[in-house]
Amino acid sequence: MRIFSCLLVFLLSSQFSAISQERGDNYLGSTDVYEFYAPYWFNLHHFLQYEALLRSVVDSSIISKATLQHMSSTEKAALEAAISYYQEHLVEKNLRSNPYQSAFKQWIVHQDSMQLENIPPEFRHHCEHLQKVTEGYRNHFWNTHRQSIRTRLRDNLQLINDTEEKAVDRLTELTRSYWKEGNIRVDICYYGSASAYNLRPRPYTTLSPVHVVMNAMPSTDIPHGSWLELLYHESSHHLISSKAGFVAGSIGDASGFPNQKAPRDLWHAYLFYFSGVVTQDLLHEQGITDYSLYMVRKRVFSSYFPHLQAHLPAYMRFEDSLYEVSKRIIADFQASRK
Q1: Are 116 and 128 in contact (CB under 8 A)?
Q2: Averaged over 217-226, what is the pLDDT?
Q3: Arithmetic mean of pLDDT over the chain
Q4: How far is CA 317 from CA 133, 164, 251, 284, 321, in A?
């Protein structure tokens, strides 16, 4: 059995301090599968992106009037200029899929110093705004955001340590794909990725390399275990893709019959279901017996879920092939739409 290593979030540990210096000030801790970070500049980037999105789409704000009253005129001017820049240049660029945002993310998460250094030419104008707004962000937002990040990791770290080995084994077994070697980097941001279609910040993943971004904004409707499920869901994206691999191939083969066409993004619905059920089973082993799947609570792929629930368990018990199960799911879904 693999030996778990757990480095708690608190800066009081000398062991943590030594490793933190080696891996950077953003480093929070690690398990056998993951390395967790709270990158300051990346958090500032998400903060500005989300504020710009809310202002552009619903004329709303995450910045309270009380906070604005405590900001200096210089801080407020820099903040407004940065938000305007994001509204004009970045708000429509998806944090997960846009080439510029992806390239910027891969660079900015490794910036540990108080000032950005060796800035690539394509990011200089962008970074000018970040550096001008940094004093206001540190003075009025960052302490709250950082504490929430640490609290979210602290509340889930034991669950991760207790379940990650079985989760990896089960998810690779179901997808017949190899889990990546080495630890998966997980950057935790107070705000995650949001779009004009769904203004709620959410975690997201990019591939090559596998890089997970989890969010930590407090919410009263998050049951214990939900963050764990989303972590396993996001980090499993490299096991299931839309066009390649065992799961996509099984769905493609099953939809290759007359009048059989796979529903849009069915592969992603499978990923939600597999990661959700695997997490639910592992939480049950930990004594959490009332956990409900994320896709049920949030009605994700709700039109697909009854068909997944009716047929996928047979595959998960290895009583039938994913190909045969997928044929029945596709046929049932198509019949339900008539």
Answers
A1: no
A2: 85
A3: 91
A4: 54, 20, 18, 17, 10
Starting at the edge strand found earlier in the chain, the sheet holding 34-37 runs: 27-30, 34-37, 184-189, 211-215, 204-206
- Give me the sign of the Cα torsion angle 313, 316, 319, 323: positive
pLDDT at 187 over 70: yes
What CA–CA distance (Å, rounded) separates 119 from 91? 21
Burial profile 131-147: b = 16 or more Cβ within 10 angstroms, e = fewer: bbbbebbeebbbeebbe
* Tokens linked to 28: 């929070």
Secondary structure of 15-59 as H, E, C letters: HHHHHHHHHCCCEEEECCCEEEECCHHHHHHHHHHHHHHHHHHHC
The CA distance from 86 to 82, in Å, is: 6
Q: What is the DSSP string of 173-232?
A: HHHT-PPPSSPEEEEEESS-B--SS--S-B-EEETTTTEEEEE----TT--TTHHHHHHH
What the block records as the tokens of 311 is 């047929």
Scan for tokens 């690539």, then name that residue. 120
Report which DSSP code applies to 151.
H
Q: Return the sign of the alpha-carbon dihedral for residues 245, 248, 254, 258.
A: negative
Which of 14-18, 56-60, 86-90, 288-292 bottoms out in mean pLDDT, i.e. has the lowest?
14-18
> Is residue 319's pLDDT more than 90?
yes
